[in-house]
Amino acid sequence: MALFVLALAIFGTAQGVQYKQGPGESDSSGKSEKKPKIATSHVYDLDYERPKGLSFAKAVSMGLMVSGGLPSAWETDTVPKVENVEYANPGNLVWSLGARMLLGDGHELSMKREQWEGDESLSAFYIATGPIFNPEVSYNGYFTTLLSEVERPTILVGAGVGGDYGEFQCATTMIPKELELLDVIHDRIKKYGGFVGLRGECAYSLVKKYGYTGFYKLGCPSLFINTHKNLGKKLEVKYNSLVAAVKAKDAQKLRIAVAMPDRYTKKVVPFLTKILVEFPNSILVHQQTNGDSILEHACKQMNITKPSRPSYMFYDALDWRQFSASMDLVISARIHGSMIAIAAETPAMLIPVDMRVLELGEAMHIPHIMPNDLPEDDSNGVIEDLSGAVSALKRQFNGKTFDNQRSAYAATYKELFSKVGLRLNPAIANL
Questions:
Q1: What is the model's pTM?
Q2: Quick check: 226 pLDDT over 70?
Q3: 149 in a domain, yes or no?
Q4: Domain span at residue 263?
């Protein structure tokens, strides 16, 4: 039932077009033998009840706006309809859904930790994660405990390097606590089998420098939320059409979703603020608790009136994808705000504010505009500035290159999954 709902969400109505399921899109392996049973952690539960289409104010009133570095958008056993549920970054739900899509329906999933103890039928341990190698935050104790609970071949997807390493420079060294975590994971893979999927070149080069093996550059799992074979080709057509739409007389009617960075960033926030001011059909999408205050601060700095725009915080990634499909453009300083748009076949303008975001954008060929390339002033007008940025995206994005990269990552996943007895979602394996 869950995968049927997923198929409707991803291959259902988007931008007025009714998609039909094609070969492999049911996520079925087509095989009758018993499915491998695997323990999963931080993987999107399709049956987990989530509130839909929340306004920012409604999210606050429900007690869903909690920050503080907690693993807040990961799965819990508490249905998020009560107060004090710890959710802070819905972007985590996007990579969590991507990790779920990689599995398809070819496995039996054991998603609750209390079910793992003594279960000899488990064949593997599958963990979705993020920038866990981080000089500022230690996940060592958490992962050491987590890994001790299932002694089976282990797969981590979406792992990356955290921290702020200056102006768009990859980290070149790791501190002892990061190396300790790498040791734990590396030793685990050597003992039981498995692999780690890394987000991009920064993480891969750094891990390789220290001599670790079993780590592969695979981008973010969210690249595979949409499993259509020619996604890049479709997106290229839409980027081309967007150029004309921004230049049209009625350009102000465009529906644009804007996602602020997690902190006030020069040039980036003023540009996003001007988009919200200029386009009356624009919408603010929150991925943190301070998005509205960042907008308010920017308006004061720019001496303009804060625009009254709808604002949303999503706790259902499929709902978010459907919302993104109704937009003409998504402009995001957050990687997963862009990735859910890509999954919805909506043009995204990614504006990286640090190396973590840029690394992912480059690894997956997501078109992006660097902060220093944003306009300094309003001499050309906001619409003309947007037109120039969209034209730059069109020149940068190559649908064939995007599709070829997805296909290459999918082939690597297929090979690595098979080595531990797992089956990659056929719709992804056939990309």
A1: 0.89
A2: yes
A3: yes
A4: 231-398
